[in-house]
């Protein structure tokens, strides 16, 4: 601390506590696993350099802000227009179906599995078509022969149940 | 947007991650991300949720890998070769730079650690793409809380370099 930097053990502890959530956040913002890893590294280098200035009570928020700024810098450097990117952070198509184990824990999968089992068959179908098969709500509505609003309502209700199962924030 | 309920925030975060927010909605939500921890956490959870759903669907569908069309396997090989080629190029470039430049006392360890990390990431990416995509191995998650080597190496080297610099300044 005298040197104005966080101790490596403190940085390691921060990583163990918040690394997975930050990586998931960066995946959501950047939609690219490599860039998310790069931004995560920059975030923890910044944490090592100036994390001591953050209030320990709000360190998670501080890390989120640093991560967001690093993501924006990276996005500008890569000249990526988010609005033009249709790509989805969890990439449901089979060509990139690999799941990042740095983001996802086994217990999360088990919780979501339990949540999926509580869904109605209609909700489960919408969730599968939207997330796993990466179909738009309009495509799903057409495929199932139901109004678009019904599909969105089913998805939203399903998400509420799944999020409740995965954990409140 | 601070008045948003957790359910509204989860829904917005899902739409953001799914690429469905457009125009002003997208801009406002990104402004929110810059300042609101709850929004950031909701985005993280939306990503984790999506990945978990994919995992569960893969389990239910079993052999996803075997159902992949032949062109996919060709593309996988091509991308594996590209990554391996890139890794080799970087290794050659790093060696060449080391030969060209005078030895650096302060940061050479960190460069090596970063190069090793880069190559390891490339290997991990190939392994992740080529590995079985269906079953969940409990051991896979064994070290999920472990701190990655790159983080320890980067922080330790950074601090060692600073200590050296301070020593030089004092001398």
Which SSEs are present, and which pair or pack?
The complex is a heterodimer of chains A (169) and B (171).
Chain A: H1 8-30, H2 33-50, H3 59-77, H4 106-118, H5 121-132, H6 137-144, H7 148-166
Helix pairs in contact in A: 1-2, 1-3, 2-3, 4-7, 5-7, 6-7
Chain B: H1 6-17, H2 23-35, H3 37-61, H4 64-67, H5 70-100, H6 108-130, H7 149-170
Radius of gyration of chain A: 19 Å
Q: What oligomeric state do these chains adopt?
A: heterodimer
Which descriptor suits the 3D outline of chain B? extended
- Secondary-structure element order of chain A, N to C: HHHHHHH
Radius of gyration of chain B, in angstroms, nearest whole number: 22 Å
Strand content of chain B: under 5%
**Element-by-element helix/strand order of chain B:** HHHHHHH
Broad structural category of chain B: mainly alpha
Notes on the protein architecture:
The complex is a heterodimer of chains A (169) and B (171). Chain A has 169 residues and is mostly helical. Chain A has seven helices and no strands. In chain A, helix 4 (106-118) packs across helix 7 (148-166). The longest helix of chain A has 23 residues, at 8-30. The two termini of chain A are 31 Å apart. The relative contact order of chain A is 0.10. Chain B has 171 residues and is mainly alpha-helical. Helices cover 76% and strands 0% of the residues of chain B. Chain B has seven helices and no strands. Chain B has helices spanning 6-17, 23-35, 37-61, 64-67, 70-100, 108-130, 149-170. In chain B, helix 1 crosses helix 3 (37-61) and helix 2 crosses helix 3. The chains are: A mainly alpha (169), B mainly alpha (171). At the A-B interface, helix 1, helix 2, helix 3, helix 4 and helix 5 of A face helix 1, helix 2, helix 3, helix 6 and helix 7 of B.
């Amino acid at each position: 601390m005298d040197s104005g930097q966080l101790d490596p053990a403190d940085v390691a502890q921060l990583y163990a506590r918040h690394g997975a959530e930050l990586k998931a956040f960066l995946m959501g913002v950047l939609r690219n696993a490599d860039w998310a890893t790069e931004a995560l590294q920059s975030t923890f280098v910044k944490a090592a350099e100036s994390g001591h200035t953050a209030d320990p009570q709000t360190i998670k928020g501080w890390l989120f802000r640093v991560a967001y700024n690093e993501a924006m810098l990276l996005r500008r450097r890569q000249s990526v227009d988010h609005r033009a990117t249709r790509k989805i952070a969890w990439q449901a198509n089979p060509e990139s179906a690999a799941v990042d184990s740095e983001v996802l824990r086994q217990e999360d999968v088990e919780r979501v599995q339990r949540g999926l089992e509580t869904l109605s068959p209609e909700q489960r179908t919408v969730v599968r078509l939207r997330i796993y098969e990466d179909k738009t709500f309009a495509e799903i509505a057409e495929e199932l022969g139901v109004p678009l609003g019904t599909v969105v309502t089913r998805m939203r209700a399903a998400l509420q149940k799944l999020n409740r199962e995965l954990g409140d924030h | 947007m601070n008045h948003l309920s957790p359910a509204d925030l989860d829904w917005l975060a899902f739409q953001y991650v799914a690429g469905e927010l457009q125009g002003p909605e997208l801009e406002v939500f990104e402004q929110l991300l810059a300042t609101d921890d709850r929004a950031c956490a909701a985005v993280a959870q939306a990503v984790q949720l999506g990945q978990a759903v994919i995992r569960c669907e893969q389990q239910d569908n079993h052999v996803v890998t075997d159902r992949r069309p032949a062109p996919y396997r060709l593309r996988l090989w091509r991308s594996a070769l590209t990554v391996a080629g890139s890794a080799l190029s970087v290794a050659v470039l790093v060696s060449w730079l080391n030969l060209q430049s005078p030895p650096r006392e302060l940061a050479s360890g960190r460069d090596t650690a970063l190069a090793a990390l880069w190559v390891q990431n490339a290997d991990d990416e190939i392994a992740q793409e080529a590995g079985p995509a269906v079953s969940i191995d409990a051991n896979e998650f064994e070290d999920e809380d472990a701190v990655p080597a790159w983080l320890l190496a980067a922080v330790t080297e950074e601090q060692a370099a600073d200590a050296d610099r301070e020593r030089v300044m004092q001398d």
